[in-house]
Amino acid sequence: MDKKDELTQIVKTVQEDIGQFELLYSQIINKIYFWCYTIVKDDTTAKDLTQEAMIQIYKKIATVQQPEYFSSWMYKLVRNVCYNHLKVHKRSDKLVLDSDDYTVKYEQTVIEERRDSLPEEAYNLQEIKRLIKQFIDNLPMKQREVITLFYLEEMKINEISEILNYNAGSVKSRLHAGRKNLELQIKEYQERNNVKLYSASILPLLGVILKDYQDDICNKQNLQYDKSLYTVSNNSLLFNFLQMLSEKLAIVIASIVVVGVITAVVIIGLSNQDTNKVGDKTTLSAFNDQGMYQKSKGHPYIEDITYLEFPMREGIDVTIKLKVDIEETDMKILFNNEELSFEKNQKDIYLKVRENGVYTIVTDEYKTNFEIDNIDIYAPELVEAFNEDEYLLLVINDEQSQIDFQKSFIEWRGKVYQIPKDYKIKGKFDGVVKVTLFNYNEDFIEYNLDFK
To answer: What is the rounded CA–CA span in Å between residue 158 and residue 168?
Structure first.
């Protein structure tokens, strides 16, 4: 069971028995304190806000309808607590709430050991961690937020967008600005001190460094569970029960009203002599974080829609699995109002899409949309990876992307290996290997490989 599944199970357990809240507390307290500290940059204030946020989570945990998305719900709640504090106290440093400026000021830090006389491969990770932590602290808040969620929590752009209430473009912009800001600080430090911190980009190590940073600042605080703050009383239980009951009752009433309206419309429509077409009927559709079509909402004939998420050059292979075998003439797939060709094999539909955008599946009177946004002719594309003899071999499509070999790495068991131009990395690799490919525009894409 991975960490996300474990957290989901704990949330379900606490929802069934609030007396088990300490289980959840131990899992999330460091995350919440670090998130508060990331926003307010003050130990004491962060600790007070952490307590306030934890009490709110305790009171509202029963209202979480999708435990698998608890982390996103939690980060959004905690962020609201912190922002409300900043607004009430009207922090004078405008930088905190508004700025995305690249320019930063920071105190000069002296490194213990001069690095210019050492081989680049012999870098000491501990030696640079504290400097990078300081550089992260120097980032404007909006950049720190995105950097933290993307690298520490490994969240996707759409998840970060939901938490921060930004559109995806703004998230990507702040992520890019944060990277640039860090690289600028590193470059300025190296030039000022005539020292080489690292043989290439530090970005692939940000997740490790942020986790270490989180542990550092949390270990300095007394974040132990205080049972007196989370005591269940009969009144609170009754309040939560009535609150949940009222919410469910409101949903039931709303459903009855909607059904009544629909029924009335149908009756009125049937009473008319003109023939009414229902070909424009559109059902609800939704996608989870793996890009899979959610079975609980949507097309009555569609089981799921699957495709690879990582960037592709030529197009995306899409598979549509049907619940029942239907005739080909019963289904159309449209893009920009043009009908696309596809192959059908009993319950499976195979389709090659070559442009980003919204695709529409039409069957009988139902319509369902799915969106493709990961076709990029300039993306560094990892086609295949496999172990052969004493090497890990990468097959990469680099005709358009112009890969920057000085910055492209693989990370395995805490070690970083530069990717050579022949794409052969010496060593025997098993388990999870992270591949990071940079191009000369300083964009990069990460792939997680699992050699079981």
So the answer is: 6
